[in-house]
Write a structure and sequence with these properties.
The protein has an eight-stranded parallel barrel, surrounded by six helices. Helix 1 crosses helix 2 and helix 6 packs parallel to helix 7. It has a single domain, classed as TIM Barrel, CATH 3.20.20. The protein contains ten helices and eight strands. Helix 2 links the parallel strand 2 and strand 3. The radius of gyration is 17 Å and the shape is globular. It has 236 residues and is α/β, with parallel strands linked by helices. The mean pLDDT is 97. Bound molecules: the ligand O=c1ccn([C@@H]2O[C@H](COP(=O)(O)O)[C@@H](O)[C@H]2O)c(=O)[nH]1. The ligand O=c1ccn([C@@H]2O[C@H](COP(=O)(O)O)[C@@H](O)[C@H]2O)c(=O)[nH]1 binds next to strand 8 and helix 9.
Length: 236
């Protein structure tokens, strides 16, 4: 099925099995959101679940955050492309050779290739967390450094927090895609996220795509929660 809209909301299907993921997907409209399959659901339900979601009209972001040697990682993104996903990601801290190998490996897929993006600094990490792994720069400076490396490697964009979006749009240009988790409506629990913004703030800051999990999936009425966020960002 061809999607003619470009939904900016990506619902993170962080479920322990395929059944609740499909039950939620059945209530959602592919014209209003894309879906993200991450490590838990993919490890439980695998490529078949991704195919099922795609057969139901959804474009899928396969969020497995590959981080390995160039040969292994580039083979993994090719496997994701064979699966037909819309977006796939790697860790920018895997370095230049790894990211270039991935980008080159996807060239053979032509215009059918997935968007290839790189994770900069996880939105669950604060400056203190970075210091704990030996990085004394601020999260914003580290994100900026890894985004420049990612763009120089020819990837399509990065995963970052919406807090970094204004700086990255200024430094990397409008076409460099910013995919931002850590989205929290005002009334939502922060949970383990550190660098957060509301949906409207994130769009105003320059986010291209909002990744939203628990504020939708754990809401008493997930559909109403999505509709409220969709209304908030569509009005901008
Ligand atoms: O830096 C990152 C990269 C990925 N994520 C993923 O996004 C969702 C966020 O879910 P919430 O429930 O809205 O917190 C989740 O699947 C993460 O694996 C991220 O949060 N931060």
């Amino acid at each position: 099925m061809t999607i003619v809209t470009n939904p900016r909301i990506i619902v993170a299907l962080d479920f322990p099995s395929g059944d609740p993921a499909l039950a939620l997907a059945d209530q959602l409209d592919p014209a209003k959101c894309r879906l993200k399959v991450g490590k838990e659901l993919f490890t439980r339900s695998g490529p078949e679940l991704v195919r099922t979601l795609q057969d139901r009209g959804f474009e899928v972001f396969l969020d497995l955050k590959f981080h390995d040697i160039p040969n292994t990682t580039s083979a993994a993104v090719a496997a994701a492309a064979d699966l037909g996903v819309w977006m796939v990601n790697v860790h920018a801290s895997g370095g230049e050779k790894m990211m270039v190998a991935c980008r080159e490996r996807l060239e053979s897929f032509g215009s059918d290739r997935p968007l290839l993006i790189a994770v900069t600094v996880l939105t669950s990490m604060s400056a203190e967390d970075l210091a704990g792994i030996g990085i004394t720069d601020s999260p914003e400076a580290q994100v900026s450094r890894l985004a420049s490396l990612t763009r120089n490697c020819g990837l399509d964009g990065v995963v970052c927090s919406a807090q970094e979006a204004p700086r990255l749009k200024a430094e990397q240009g409008a076409g460099f895609q910013l995919v931002t988790p850590g989205i929290r409506p005002l009334t939502a629990d922060k949970g383990d996220q550190q660098r957060i913004m509301t949906p409207a703030e994130a769009i105003r800051a320059g986010s291209d795509y909002l990744v939203i999990g628990r504020p939708i999936t754990r809401a008493a009425d997930p559909l109403a929660a999505l509709e409220a966020i969709h209304g908030e960002v569509s009005a901008l």
